[in-house]
Specification:
globular; 248 residues
Length: 248
């Protein structure tokens, strides 16, 4: 399976009332479990984020199970193929224009409660990870353990988080920045790495406390694959996966 990263803007959903025609189209595309979760949320932003994650999972399942053979073979490929994450950006209208009905989502859970897409129809268990921030939701998918994080950059709270979660080397790197803009950039580069790693392990941000993420070539990083995206102005994205040859 290729490593993939799906990116979806949910800004339009956050601005629409939950009973609008657009939302009715979204509800029709969500699996039963996700639909129940989405309709229980009263906060418009959280509802849009949850719905966006559900749409991306459905998009993933349709690519794997319902696309033409050529597309399916490209997606579910031989193990050990490309390690970089291929970024695919979608608008809401693009996902809603694709044919298909919701596919039931079956999860299995790791020891730390991390969900996986259950193996079925001669396909192995699928590793995926969702993240959302601001107007966007992402879904990373891989043949190996994966974590992904997207963050909208804002200055508020960064110093407190750095003091609590950053290693000495990371704090020194922040202090060496020559402007507040540069410091913000570096903070979110490090923070998305930490969040992605914590989501890969299933332990959350506590897995990253005092670990140094300023150097992705460090010895302890050798078992990991990293990919970062700067395409969205004002956002940082990081993806982290286990190397296939690591036996994990």
């Amino acid at each position: 399976m290729e490593n993939r990263l799906f990116l979806l803007s949910v800004k339009e959903l956050g601005e629409e009332p939950s009973e609008s025609e657009l939302w009715q189209q979204v509800y029709e595309r969500l699996d039963e479990g996700r639909l129940t979760k989405v309709t229980s949320l009263r906060n418009s932003r959280k509802r849009a984020e949850s719905a966006g994650g559900g749409l991306l999972v459905q998009h993933l399942l349709h690519q794997v199970f319902c696309e033409e053979n050529e597309q399916r073979e490209r997606f579910v490929s031989e193990a050990g193929k490309p390690v970089a994450f291929a970024l695919e950006r979608y608008t809401l209208s693009e996902l809603l224009s694709k044919p298909g009905v919701p596919i039931p989502v079956r999860y299995t859970y790791g020891t730390k409660g991390k969900p996986y897409l259950q193996a079925r129809e001669n396909l192995p268990e699928m590793f995926f990870n969702l993240s959302h921030s601001g107007d966007y939701v992402i879904c990373a998918v891989s043949e190996r353990e994966v974590g992904a994080d997207i963050q909208k950059m804002q200055m508020q709270g960064t110093e407190r988080l750095a003091n609590r979660f950053f290693s000495e080397e990371e704090r020194k790197l922040l202090q060496s920045c020559d402007s507040s803009e540069h410091r913000l950039e570096i903070f979110y580069r490090l923070w998305t790495r930490k969040e992605a790693y914590g989501k890969l392990t299933g332990e959350g941000i506590t897995a990253s406390i005092d670990k140094d993420f300023s150097d992705l070539t460090a010895d302890w990083m050798r078992s990991l694959i990293w990919e970062e995206f700067d395409e969205l102005s004002g956002y940082k994205i990081a993806c982290c996966a286990r190397r296939q040859d690591n036996g994990m």
